Amino acid sequence: xxxxxxxxxxxxxxxxxxxxxxxxxxxxxxxxxxxxxxxxxxxxxxxxxxxxxxxxxxxxxxxxxxxxxxxxxxxxxxxxxxxxxxxxxxxxxxxxxxxxxxxxxxxxxxxxxxxxxxxxxxxxxxxxxxxxxxxxxxxxxxxxxxxxxxxxxxxxxxxxxxxxxxxxxxxxxxxxxxxxxxxxxxxxxxxxxxxxxxxxxxxxxxxxxxxxxxxxxxxxxxxxxxxxxxxxxxxxxxxxxxxxxxxxxxxxxxxxxxxxxxxxxxxxxxxxxxxxxxxxxxxxxxxxxxxxxxxxxxxxxx
Length: 302
Prior knowledge:
This is ABC-2 type transport system ATP-binding protein. This protein is α/β, with parallel strands linked by helices.
């Protein structure tokens, strides 16, 4: 949840890069229970069958002499579970910060639900839920107060906020923590309350930057199931992650960003080709570095 004063938003554009063919349906990610009703991925993201929710065109951002984002073009359709991967410093967080209106681009355009993010920020942000990489929450509030603030800020009436808070707390396993200050939460609990705050207004698009960092496997499986159901019912998730196996299991589409450029984008099957997504990523990112010349490491100290 980002404080209101950080909300800025804007330019729109026509998509330039097709997302690619539909990914073939593969088993959904492991969950904390067998739950046979867990939606299968790929069903809702048939290219051309659903409208474009997020369109990024010619996006550029430079910090001094460093070009962090260099002409990024992406198109994400409704019902997609879209992963963005890249090495540290590739421009993933910078790109998502511009999409959510937290950082103004130097060039290019972004539209959400057809609304230009930087020309009509208020309207665009009604459709977005955000979980940023570097969480900045009002941690002197209790979990319940934070969710209330988040809901009312989004225009929900108190009765609706109370009802949704109970649902979210139950879904995320936070029932017993709502009365405690967020500053007393563990890292994983903080991540979950922030995701609950991002979901409370039922956004059309969720932007999640490293959502499973510091989250234990059981909680992560539960969150994944919640997100899969959200996508199966017409929501759209765009997330960044360093977990290639996770992206390959959960996402139906993926973009690989290296040095601020999209080097590959499409269905997971298209991008990974005949190997794994990690192998394709390593190939595009420049390959593994040689470990030669470190024989001293094997001599060991007495």
